[in-house]
Specification:
Elements (H helix, E strand, L loop, with lengths): L11 E7 L3 H9 L1 H7 L6 E7 L6 E7 L5 E12 L3 E9 L9 E10 L2 E9 L4 H22 L3
């Protein structure tokens, strides 16, 4: 990635064409009940969540892996522009409540006919390995999201 684009090798960009109109995709990213059904890699389930989806509002999720391990994540919404953009912080929460590295995620939605091009940009990784781990997770999550959207 070039410096002229403002991106570094520690930025993550994942793009997916979703077979659903942009307003419906936006709703699936901003309705807590819907988010709880798809947010996480394949095989993970949302155990509990608390979301206040507005600029300055926060979210907190606990999801469980297929092996039974709980993972907690939380952050703050920075920007909500219906139906085109959602910006929020993201950090893993340790069992003792301490937060790991905080990153910034921007989800951009572009209409392409009856479909939506979803672009997820995550920045602030401290290592390329951490970025690559998140790429695996987000790729699986967006596959799960695309499947979920076929039921809406």
């Amino acid at each position: 990635m070039s410096a002229s684009s403002g991106m570094t090798d520690r930025d993550l960009v994942v793009t997916r064409l979703i077979d659903a109109p942009r307003p419906l995709v936006f709703k699936a990213w901003t309705d807590p009940v819907r988010i709880a059904r798809w947010w996480g890699p394949k095989g993970f389930v949302t155990v509990d969540y608390d979301m206040d989806i507005r600029p300055g509002g926060s979210y907190r999720f606990r999801m469980r892996s297929p092996e039974g391990t709980d993972h907690r994540k939380r952050g703050v919404y920075r920007e909500i522009v219906e139906p085109e953009r959602i910006v929020f912080t993201f950090a893993w929460e340790q069992p003792d409540g301490r937060l790991g590295l905080e990153t910034l995620i921007t989800v951009t939605l572009e209409a392409e006919g009856a479909k939506t091009r979803l672009t997820l940009h995550q920045t602030g990784f401290d290592t390329i390995a951490w970025r690559d781990d998140h790429q695996i997770g987000w790729t699986s999550c967006l596959e799960r999201f695309a499947e979920y959207m076929t039921t809406q």
